[in-house]
């Protein structure tokens, strides 16, 4: 049995956009959708006396958020199997626990009560940095979110560090029937100046060819398994976080890996993933890769 997609909701506009995106994603992959809302209403309101017939406002609100988001999902795709649940926990812990039995976690980019100028909600950031499954943060322009551009982009790092992200991206492109744009950024070593034995142009060519070779190597096995996916390879000079930000402008989804090191605590996100989660022009998928 395939694991469901899980979407975290809190009633905010951002989470409603995440629900819509999650419905389309579940439909594409033929997966059930689980709508999850986390609430600690009992901690703040306490329980009512046993003789009371009135239900706590916090409990009613939590159930309403989960049920209304599930109804929204069902109306968008009547054939989709949708379930909803209120989890008695803080949002980060609830989603991380739910992610242990899901194909992927989907969140909005900002939650209720977030500071107006905040680029990314604290819940989304923490979940993307700690989850054991892929996390998609739904952000960016309407065209990008609606999948109107026909392209999935993936940032390709070293083959040993990003194979799971590449596999995820290829499957996404296949499910959408669109092209895959595989990008690897490269930079000239600091010591290669004009007084190097190689002239500047030759130095650039050598580094670009090396990046292209690594790109081909990282894609070889996965592309062979999905021959129907149209793959465009591109090696680009520049810092990876800037190169991939530019790639996100023309993508329906951008995928990056995040190395998870055993025994490390706190957020495990590299600069590239962190930058995309805050600034990308399209939804961002962060795929964990075990070291």
From TrEMBL:
Pfam families: Usp. Gene3D superfamilies: HUPs (3.40.50.620). It comes from the Bacteria. Residues 5-139, 151-288 form the UspA domain. Belongs to the universal stress protein A family. PANTHER family: ADENINE NUCLEOTIDE ALPHA HYDROLASES-LIKE SUPERFAMILY PROTEIN. This is Universal stress protein. It comes from Streptomyces bottropensis. The lineage of its organism: Bacteria, Bacillati, Actinomycetota, Actinomycetes, Kitasatosporales.
